[in-house]
Design a protein that fits this description.
Length: 351
Amino acid sequence: MGFTGFLREICTYLMEMLAYCRNCPSPTPKSVLPMLALRKGHSETGLPPFVLMGFPGEDAAKTWMSLLLGLLYLASILGNGLILFITKTDQCFTEPMYLLLSMLAATDLGMALSTLPTVISVFWLDIRNINFYSCLFQLFCIHSLCSIESAILVAMAFDRFVAICNPLRYNSVLQQIVTKLGMVALIRGVCIHVPIPFLLNRLSYCANTALSHAFCYHPDVMKLACVDTTINSTYGLVLVLATYLLDSVFIVCSYGLILKTVLGTSMQAELLKALNTCVSHLCVVLLFYIPLIGLTLAHRYGRNASPLLLVMMGLVFLVVPSSLNPIVYSIKNKQIRNVLSKRFWAKRSRT
């Protein structure tokens, strides 16, 4: 699928979500009762839409949490959009590190935009129904973007490794392969997740179509099937081991070699400077992997977990990394701080 086709799919998805916002009524408590009947094949017109989960509890708490969620989404969209804008328009951001940073910002922005329609519908409009095929497209986007971000974090770890362990060859090595690394991350993230919608499409689902989150997630949709899901579970486990586990091993190995090189440096000033360049990336790695691991374990082993806990973990997984990543890099990167302050104060001085 080309870039035009991808944009067409996104527009179709957003139009379907808006149509459901206008036409689908909010689910009543009866719509989330457990297993009423088996539906053979979701292609039947009688299959009910999936029901997304909002905050259970008091209305006052829901209002405050919805406002906080809106602020986090706003911070994610504006922050990552700003990072993309300054790295593309300012001539001082020509190093490979900033190209990788723009890739990370684009991925985080895509994650926010792919989940924003359903999250807004659930928490602000109290509209929780989502069409089956819109759900498949959304979960495909979420899982693909997560895999792409994980691969970009590996590339950023390799970037730091070359910058610290072999600084004289940094530009010559990274300039040649940084774009290729981004393409590999994109192709891997899309290709390995293409089978997931087809694997879910072949299953039969029960009348209980209540999900655990305000977005569609592969393990969450899979558990609603009334047939054997061994193939789906096995493929999902293979994906986790082949992507996130392998990527985390590469990141740990990169920082092990970095630490070995730094400890061999006799000058303390050089030691602190080298370690400081890795702090931003380490923070981003932790922000990405901790919520991801928590959500994965919750779906694997937390069958009796509280609905509120699952909703909160899902939202932390969605919006916390993408909203905090631009802040982390803006605080720790002096060059980004200087460009932002210059542009901000220049506009203020003109007004």
